[in-house]
Amino acid sequence: MGKDSATAPASGIGVLDKSMTVLRAIADAPCNLTELCERTGLPRATAHRLAVGLETHRLLARNAAGRWYPGPALGELASSAHDPVREAALMVLPRLREITGESVQVYRREGSERVCIAAMEPPTGLRDTVPVGTRFPMTAGSAAKVLAAWAEPSILRALVTDSVFSDRALHEIQRRGWAQSAGERAAGVASVSAPVRDAGGDVVAAISVSGPIDRMGRRPGARWAADLLAAAEAIQKRLQPGTPG
C-alpha cells in the first residue's frame, strides 16, 4: 500500500479500508488510474473497480480528461454532519484570532495523526496556514503534545516511540496545562496549544495558536497561554448540555 493507506485508520473490513484509501488519494489531487495505483499501491484491477464503484455512488466524479476527483455526494454528506466540538470552536476562534493576530486551529487525534477540524487565519501578514482537513503525524508540534499528554496509556506508549517528545515532557505539559513548540512541525513556525475538554472533562481536541517564530518567539506560551486556556474553557462551556451554539 502507499503512504495514505499506511497512516489511515484501519477498520479490518478490507473493501471499506481500500475504498477509503482511494478516496483519500483522490482528495489529494485529481488522478487517472495509473496515478491512483501509484498513490495507493493497489493492483490496477482493484483500484479501477473501487473507483468506478465510488463514482456510481457519486462519491467520486470524472472530469473531461478522465481524472477522478471528489464527487458531489461527499459535500452533501458533509453538510448534514454534526460536530459539536467544531461548531463550538467556530464560535470561539474569531475572538482568539483577534486577540493574538495569529493563525488559530483546533485539532482532533485520529489514530497516529492529528486532523485540523477548524481554523481561522489573520486577514493580513505572514501566517501559518493550515486548511481544515489537514493531517499531521502525532510526532511533533504543540497540538500533538497536548493530544498525546491526555491519551490513553496504551496509545501514549505507541505515540512516544516515534515522537520528538518524551514521557517526562508530557507529564510536565499535564502539570502546566498547555504545550509550546518552535520549529518542530515546520521550520520557522512556533505554536502553543491547550486541551479542549467535553462536558465530562475528557480531552477531545487541542486548540492552537501558530505563526512565525520571528513574531511569536521561541516561547510563545509566555505570551498566549492564558488567552488560549480561556478559549479552551469557552469551548467546553459551549459543549455543556443545553448551552446554545
TrEMBL record:
GO terms for molecular function: DNA binding; DNA-binding transcription factor activity. Gene3D superfamilies: 3.30.450.40, Winged helix-like DNA-binding domain superfamily/Winged helix DNA-binding domain. Residues 73-241 form the IclR-ED domain. Residues 13-72 form the HTH iclR-type domain. The keyword Metal-binding does not apply. GO terms for biological process: negative regulation of DNA-templated transcription. It comes from the Bacteria. Keywords: DNA-binding, Transcription, Transcription regulation. It holds the Pfam family HTH_IclR. This is IclR family transcriptional regulator.
